[in-house]
Amino acid sequence: MRTLTELKFDNTYSELPSVFGTQINPQPLADPFIVSVNPGICDLLELDVSEASTDFFVNLFTGNDILPGFCPIAMKYTGHQFGQYNPDLGDGRGLLMGEVLTSQGSKWDIHLKGSGTTPYSRQGDGRAVLRSSIREYLASAAMHGLGIRTTHALAILSSATPVYREQIEHGSTLIRVAESHLRFGHFEYLFYTNQHAELKLLADYLIKHHFPDLQQDDISTPNRYAAMFHRIVSLTAEMIADWQSVGFAHGVMNTDNMSVLGLTFDYGPYGFLDDYNPGFICNHSDYSGRYAFNQQPSIALWNLSALGYALSPLIDKALIDEALNTYQPQLQQYYSQKMRSKLGLAEKLEQDSELYSEMFSLLASQAVDYTLFFRTLSTLPKDALTSSIPQFEELFTCTVALSQWLQHYADRLELESVDDQTRLKQMQAANPKYILRNYLAQQAIELADKGDFSMVEQLLLVLCNPYYEHPEYESFAALPPQWGKELEVSCSS
């Protein structure tokens, strides 16, 4: 473990031409202080966690100090927002500070969110508030704990700087850590501004730093870019399958919020399913339901098509279409694997589609809690399934249809060769006990606004290991109260 000054820094993105972004220093926050630090992300960076308690750490990440190894850049990109192309996008409240190189050869972007105005702020103040910073901090920890590829958050810092939203809030910063901050929108920006040489340069940069196996001599240059796009399609399909399997709704799947590495990116008005509702809309600003839970697979394909169009100067249309045509089969394959794991089915049988269909109809018709249903199921031995109705009574209003489905499920398990103990262990490793429900995040935010960060720390502990029992935090796994299901979050969240 190292101190901040002992970390090895680089900023390969700063070596790209000036059209890729603007160098600018963060603007200081007044009287800054640490809210929370994630020890697991310190480990990723090989950073001594005690560094987070130093004045240097606090001042560095609130714009009050500078580290020689940093080269802050506001990245320029564009993108499609709710289906409409917007040329006026970019890092409006964030800066790519630099990259940490670890002893294992990993490269991690360090990004400061809430660092003040940039040339891309569009009349905004460039600030983040404690509320949104806590939501992203906990969500990224939750997704990582679930085994889903995501950006990370090293720490939250807050301050006495007032920020004006619907009310006066605390100006805060989030230290985001990611393998890359490249978005679909980076390529769209260069395409729509006819900077095709720079488009090629960015593709070469992505391949060099993140898909180095595509640099092999036996891969010709045109095919290299097609292979790159194939890789992005595959990573995106896997990410969406992960989202759908755990009941995660992103809320703002604009192309500027889509990572070329298939990372869950830019947490705003997200939500995990409470009651199973395929049409769940987590973003109160999404009036048409464009980004509803059940629309995410098709929207991801739409976004990939937009990226493919932006890459058309580098890749033949036939090869773009070929890559896009692999999305649906890969999504179905990944999702099928996830759902079989959740139900403890090692074998893939033709009759399974009917079992799934009956199950989802049952969950939707009675608005059953998605997470608790699967977690409860993963505790029941095969020979106890048909007599386990009392275990589900808190989740179902009527158990007649449930009883029928449990019988079908028990019959299906008879065709499995895996022993019951192994199956249940595998199911419990695939079905989390804890998710970040909106009402829990809201309670943590309300306490934090009063200077009490204890619930942030408690949720961080549980969400980093969501498959464990954590008996001391059992209340976090309970059914949400009705008011908790009705909380509204929007793009400003």
Q: Classify the helix fraction into a percent range.
A: 25-40%
User: Which spans of ≥5 residues are poorly predicted at pLDDT below 50?
Assistant: none
Binned strand content: 5-15%
Q: H/E element string?
A: EEEHHEEEEEEHEEHHHEEHHHHHHHHHHH
Question: Would you tell me the structural class of the helices and strands?
Answer: alpha+beta
Cα distance spanning the termini:
35 Å
> Would you tell me the overall average pLDDT?
96
Using the alpha-carbon principal axes, give the shape.
Answer: globular
Q: Main β-sheet: number of strands, strand sense, barrel status?
A: 7 strands, antiparallel
Instruction: Say how many strands there are.
Output: 13
* Radius of gyration, in angstroms, nearest whole number: 23 Å
Number of helices: 17
